[in-house]
Specification:
The structure is a homodimer.
Chain A: H1 11-18, H2 22-29, H3 37-49, H4 56-63, E1 68-73, H5 79-94, E2 98-103, H6 108-119, E3 124-128, H7 134-142, E4 147-150, E5 162-165, H8 167-181, E6 186-190, H9 196-211, E7 221-223, H10 228-239, E8 247-250, H11 253-265, E9 275-280, H12 284-287, E10 293-296, H13 299-314, E11 323-326, E12 329-331
Parallel strand pairs in A: 1-2, 1-3, 3-4, 4-5, 5-11, 6-7, 6-8, 8-9, 9-10
Antiparallel strand pairs in A: 10-12
Helix pairs in contact in A: 1-2, 1-3, 5-13, 8-9, 10-11
The structure holds a DNA duplex (30 and 30 nucleotides).
DNA sequence: AGCGTGACCGAAAACGTTTCCGGAACATAA
DNA sequence: TTATGTTCCGGAAACGTTTTCGGTCACGCT
């Protein structure tokens, strides 16, 4: 191995070593027909012996596809996103597509510029919780870029492919559970106002109350950033109310965990003195004490579904359903019980 | 906007629209000198008006760099990995590098083939917990690929750049803490045998015992896959011992959480009846009850450090330190206390 | 012998950039 | 005046593939 310069090998050098043309090497590389078994064998050996791999930029340029798919995600760390990511990654790898991961930090402008970059680099993208308006996304579509939105923050135009979870039904299940346990004074800690998920779940919450003949009390609906600390603060506010709730329906598991912490800090016991229901069912929900009753979103499944939608788009199948809503399901654990007074 | 075919624009069309050569457009795109303000202004406007972005494959081919960095990670979901990923992502985005994310599922062969792919696509890579032998990695190095290993599983050749955490010192801090609290019978749930981290921490564990004049009891060292359930099983075994430990030093937070669950299931109280120390300090550690005393690994910082090492390699700076070990630090929370008998 | 048919393979164009090189226009210095 | 820069710009090569198109050859048939 007199590998003087450790330059990358090119297809031309492999062709030379094997005594064939570059076209033939390319055919072997891509498993095309029109090569005799003998030649194929020979070329494969040379390729292997020299550890050659094709330059993907050249391939992308020549073939017009890069085999790359962008994933735009606000943050990498939170379990919510990494669960979706994990599902998407699995499905993409099955399709031999590579992931270009782009965190956007919830920043609109950064997201726009990342998308611009991605347009020249990837075949398509998954956009999780996009900060962009429907109009902006439509423009992207008109420019010929193919993408799928995961869990849209706001209502999007019909033409924009999207995957989301059944928020209203999930909220309804959670509320029905609490109502069946006998709760009457049920608070809701919502997500940020205006988010689709927030409003859909609010609808479910109110509808369930109405169905049970309970007049919704505006004081029992409070908004929080979907993280633990804001959740704790919101719960503290609710527990300080003159007439505090006996149950809290939280926008996500983080908020629910904050609520449990708030209760504990006040010497209240969950679920005896306060029932708490979360949303998402990330791993945290099983770690916390008491284990959280929560509405499960099939996050990995959402990722996989988005990929299958996208890959159909990439193959130019136009006629498919552009919108998928996956079912949510209540998982009952230990954070809910009948109210004390019942 | 009579955008009949929504084909992507090329630099040639932009040049035509602006009435200049493609060389000039390229210069504007890349902020090179040698363009009059006037022309630059004009070209920028045309670019913007038409929403043009360069084809990265072509750029990569021509310029010899793709601006892509691979990240090989066993799994995406676990907090340990996403924390590192988050740090690396931040640092890469500051350097205008894009991430190609490749989960390998802890599978050696998959990792090898992913690396092969990445060699033709990216400028370099971060390899987290590589499954590969030092020899395999050296071969990669010899082929001219640039990469940094994060948290090596086994000892690597000097030439291979790596970033890791101070395992031995971390273990020592944890043990010292338990010893100072008065524990004498301290068990260890280790990670998989042979892992560098496992052996280093084992060394710290034994050294601390020795320094305290305690003879290590082989029965108190048990191995577990670093997840919650195996952790619980291992703890159950320890608690069933004729003479059970009063404290457990776990290989990571997941195992520690499993240990807490095992104790609770037996009616033991943590930390009163059993002290537990974890390792990593992922978010779980603050969610669990009682909050976990644990050795903090600066995961995001490790990601950032690896990126800064890699980017120096990419710029062909050869002389830098190739090995970085970041300090670990004990974070005392609520899962440790003096033993009952003390 | 002549012809058609597959099977196999090579030449060369094309993909969209970057960058080297040199030329035009103009200013400045001797 | 000529020589010498400077500044700005365009032509064209180069990057490493894929893919089209056509050519060669062996073979079997008429």
């Amino acid at each position: 191995m007199s590998q003087a310069t450790s330059q990358r090998l090119t297809i031309r050098q492999i062709a030379e070593l094997a005594g064939v043309s570059i076209a033939t090497v390319s055919r072997v590389l891509n498993d095309r027909g029109d090569v005799s078994d003998e030649t194929r064998e020979l070329v494969s050996r040379v390729i292997h012996e020299n550890g050659y791999t094709a330059n993907r930029s050249a391939r992308g340029l020549s073939a017009g596809r890069t085999g790359l798919v962008g994933i735009l995600v606000p943050l990498v760390y939170p379990a919510y996103f990494s669960a979706i990511l994990a599902g998407a990654a699995e499905a993409l790898s099955e399709r031999d597509l590579q992931i270009v991961l782009s965190p956007t930090g919830h920043e609109h402008d950064r997201e726009v510029s990342v998308l611009d970059r991605l347009r020249g680099l990837t075949d398509g993208a998954l956009i999780i919780l996009p900060e962009e308006s429907s109009e902006e996304l439509e423009r992207l579509l008109d420019r010929g870029y193919r993408f799928v939105v995961l869990d849209p923050l706001m209502p999007l135009d019909e033409r924009i492919p999207s995957v989301s979870a059944a928020h209203t039904s999930g909220a309804d299940q959670a509320m029905r559970h609490l109502l069946e346990l006998g709760h009457r004074r049920i608070a809701q800690i919502t997500g940020p106002r205006g988010w689709l998920a927030t409003e859909d779940r609010r609808r479910g919450y109110r509808a369930a109350l109405a169905a049970a003949g309970i007049l919704p009390d505006p004081a029992l609906e409070v908004e929080a950033v979907p993280e633990v600390d804001p959740g704790r603060a919101a719960a503290e506010y609710l527990l300080d109310l003159p007439e505090p709730p006996t149950a809290i329906f939280a926008f996500n598991d983080n908020i629910a965990i904050g609520a449990i912490q708030a209760a504990r800090a006040r010497g209240l016991r969950v679920p005896d003195d306060l029932s708490v229901v979360g949303f998402d069912d990330v791993e945290h929900a099983t770690i916390v004490t008491p284990a959280l009753t929560t509405v499960r979103q099939p996050l990995a499944e959402m990722g996989r579904t988005a990929v299958s939608l996208l890959s159909r788009l990439l193959e130019r199948h136009r006629f498919e359903t552009l919108h998928v809503e996956l079912a949510t399901r209540l998982v009952v654990r230990d954070s809910t019980a009948p109210p004390r007074s019942a």
